Amino acid sequence: MPNERFERGMARLAEMGHNSPIVSMLDETAPDMAKYIYEFAFGDIHSRPGLDKKSRELVIISAIASLGHAPLELKSHVNMALNIGLTRQEIIEALMQLTVYVGFPTAINAIFTAKEVFEERDRS
Amino acid sequence: MPNERFERGMARLAEMGHNSPIVSMLDETAPDMAKYIYEFAFGDIHSRPGLDKKSRELVIISAIASLGHAPLELKSHVNMALNIGLTRQEIIEALMQLTVYVGFPTAINAIFTAKEVFEERDRS
Amino acid sequence: MPNERFERGMARLAEMGHNSPIVSMLDETAPDMAKYIYEFAFGDIHSRPGLDKKSRELVIISAIASLGHAPLELKSHVNMALNIGLTRQEIIEALMQLTVYVGFPTAINAIFTAKEVFEERDRS
Amino acid sequence: MPNERFERGMARLAEMGHNSPIVSMLDETAPDMAKYIYEFAFGDIHSRPGLDKKSRELVIISAIASLGHAPLELKSHVNMALNIGLTRQEIIEALMQLTVYVGFPTAINAIFTAKEVFEERDRS
Amino acid sequence: MPNERFERGMARLAEMGHNSPIVSMLDETAPDMAKYIYEFAFGDIHSRPGLDKKSRELVIISAIASLGHAPLELKSHVNMALNIGLTRQEIIEALMQLTVYVGFPTAINAIFTAKEVFEERDRS
Amino acid sequence: MPNERFERGMARLAEMGHNSPIVSMLDETAPDMAKYIYEFAFGDIHSRPGLDKKSRELVIISAIASLGHAPLELKSHVNMALNIGLTRQEIIEALMQLTVYVGFPTAINAIFTAKEVFEERDRS
Fold first, then answer.
1. Alpha carbon of B69: minimum distance to chain C alpha carbons (Å)
2. Residue of E nearest to C96 (CA)
């Protein structure tokens, strides 16, 4: 049952060129999680005014990279960040900045994940 | 023995109106840590081109907030972020954005820490 | 602007005897966070069928205790867990069980936080 | 040298239909770790009265999922949880509940890990 | 009911001059946790041959400091480490080394916790 | 532009028989990260007096293992630890000691990572 929040989330993700398999991977096992991603994560939160899309993606990339254990989600956001105009250099700078706050291994692994995204985009 | 990196870090922190007690609290017990904060954290990393100061502070605030256990350091960066022109609303938006990626308790506690900074600034 | 999700979340929290100061502490600084707690955290998620309230509280207490850095939120859920009929012994057993999975210090600190709740309830 | 605690742990794991390769993978490199899993993790802690098996497994699944970096151990406990009568729906509900407390990426990855277990069981 | 493992743990803690309030704080709420600290944490694990006491304390201090949210437990182990002959400088060096692997805020906070221990010992 | 810190870091890594692919994997995407590894991580920090190489490696292995999500970096340090004379038994003892402080899953996964290193060394 689509609703305003769901459609705002869908539109937001479309604007950012979202094409991660995460949502479809949830469909079978936990379809309501996909719904909450659209409604809450992107319809409620990401669509809020007060902070532009690029800044939101820097904040998100920093948070997921700091977790250290979610490369699939990090790749999805590195891709969206590039789609909305953040440069590869800006993303790498953000990840290098993390070194000071979460340490070298976590920052380096995030750089490797970003590198995978860059290489996938270069190949396609 | 001051050096170019140390002085660049000192200058960078001065530009951001740094006045946290962290560095002086280290002086007695681990004076070289203070040196590394100036030289590496701010002289090498924070001073890099390729990402502006405001974006760096959003990335840093996101990372420290995601750790969840470093309110003193978070307060220091919320203060510097405000000093260089990020608004209270932008900082709160960044912390609300974290809810999706690190959960409500961690994001809420970071908001409480930011609130303390706002109240301290209102009183002074 | 109240809505069905908001009211379902309010009702759910009322059923669990919620009286933590967290929501009111957010009111001034991040009022929409309070709204999302009602709408999403309790209106959407906690109110879902498929898992009873006591089981949800055990899952939540385990997750917040595992974070290790959110005693205010842990206290709120220990209180609600007791209000809906989980016993002190069951909560302590759950926290002792965590020892195996997140280590002694994190489990012990959660036990200390639960102990504070027990003592507050004994005094009132 | 088997002992009462070791045997209680072995029996407990047998009751839960344990068949993870973790213990045998430890045998060569750290055989005493396998012993501590039997004696302490399952002989001392998991066998305690005061909380039933299903509740313990919900607590454990929540804790391991919250760590975010231990899919092998999470799979082992999702399997045991199903063996003792927790339903797939209950496990997915528990993992969806985590979204609020540890964020979407960590909860989603745990759902993907549970999905792998479900698929493995469907194939065998 | 004391047993060999319990007594070995007690003896081990006595050798290290343990005087943290943690164990007695558990007595009322979770007395079996105190038992497991003696039996498993110190009777089984800490008493193992193959790594000397000082090395074990460096490993433990590194792990608790890396958690970032357990200052009470960190203080207990910094005290024991000093009691068995690790120097203040060695402990501070270990915590400075952490900077590279877990980031500045977590390492700095651990240094502040160690500093509290040093000051308490200087006063007594 | 090599400098004294860079060369000290290179020499330190050479003394420890460093041969991880991490540095070369960074070269293309984030070459300055490789520079900071040499200059700061090994030229500034690891080369400090006050704690011997073996103790530093135990501290580092404990920290990276505690993170739980950086097996590539853990393998690199397990290799270097063996190269400078720590025994397999000492490394396994250190990782077993972690069980108490970060829980079984994280410690077990670190043991599996160390086991991979041992097997790679046995094959070559």
1. 6
2. E33
If one counts the domains in chain B, the total is 2
Distance separating alpha carbons of residues A31 and A49, to the nearest angstrom: 28
Contact A69, A77 (CB under 8 A): no
Which amino acid appears at position A124 of this protein?
A: S
Tokens 């005897």 appear where?
C17
Helices (H), B39-87: 53-67, 71-83
- Dist CA B78 CA B76 (whole Å): 6
State the best of C67, C69, C101, C109 to mutate against chain E, taking most chain E CBs within 10 Å. C109
Q: E73, E74, E106, E109: which to substitute to probe chain C, counting the most C Cβ within 10 Å?
A: E73
Q: Residue E92 sits in which domain range?
A: 50-124
d(CA F105, CA F103): 6
H runs (alpha helix) in chain C: 4-15, 22-27, 31-36, 53-67, 71-83, 88-102, 104-123
Residue A7 vs residues A37, B55, D37: alpha-carbon distances, Å: 11, 29, 49
Report the 10 Å Cβ neighbour count for F50. 15
Radius of gyration of chain C (CA): 15
Nearest alpha carbon to residue B116 among C35, C23, C28, A51:
C28
**How many whole angstroms separate alpha carbon E46 and alpha carbon D59?**
27
Q: Over the stretch F18-35, which tens digit does the pLDDT of each residue have?
A: 988 999 999 889 999 999
Indicate yes or no: CB of F102 within 8 angstroms of CB of C100: no
**Pair (A63, A117) in one structural domain:** yes
CB contact under 8 A, D105 and A32: no
d(CA E48, CA D76) in angstroms, rounded, equals: 28
Give the integer Cα–Cα distance in Å for C37 and B103.
11
Instruction: Say if residue A90 is in the same domain as residue A118.
Output: yes
**Same structural domain, B61 and B108:** yes
**pLDDT on residue D27:** 87
Burial of C2 (0-12, 13-18, 19+ CB in 10 A): exposed
Contact predicate E102/A105, CB 8 Å: no
pLDDT tens for each residue of F52-105: 999 999 999 999 999 999 999 999 999 999 999 999 999 999 999 999 999 999
Task: Name which of B45, B59, B91 to mutate to probe chain A: the one with the most chain A Cβ atoms within 10 A of its Cβ.
Answer: B59
- Mark whether F37 and F61 lie in a shared domain: no
Which CATH number fits the domain that encloses residue E63?
1.20.1290.10
Q: How confident is the model at residue D1 (pLDDT cuts 50, 70, 90)?
A: low
- What predicted TM-score, i.e. pTM, was given to this entire model? 0.98
Please report the DSSP string for E79-102 in residue order: HHHHHTT--HHHHHHHHHHHHHHH
Residue with tokens 């003592």: C119
d(CA D30, CA B55): 46
Q: Check: CB of residue F66 under 8 Å from CB of residue E66.
A: yes
E103 shares a domain with E60: yes
Residue F65 in tokens: 């293992």
Neighbors of chain D with 3 or more C-beta pairs under 8 Å = A, B, C, E, F
Ramachandran category for residue B17: left, alpha or beta (phi over 0 → left; psi -120 to 50 → alpha): left
DSSP string, F6-21: HHHHHHHHHHTT---S
pLDDT at residue E1 is higher than 90:
no
- Residue in the block written with tokens 């301290």: B120
Residues 6+ apart with CB under 8 A from D113: D65, D71, D74, D75, D78
- Do C44 and C57 lie in one domain? The reply is no
Chain A residues closer than 8 Å to D115 by CB:
25, 28-29
Residues D35 and D58 in one domain: no
Q: Do B62 and B108 belong together in one domain?
A: yes
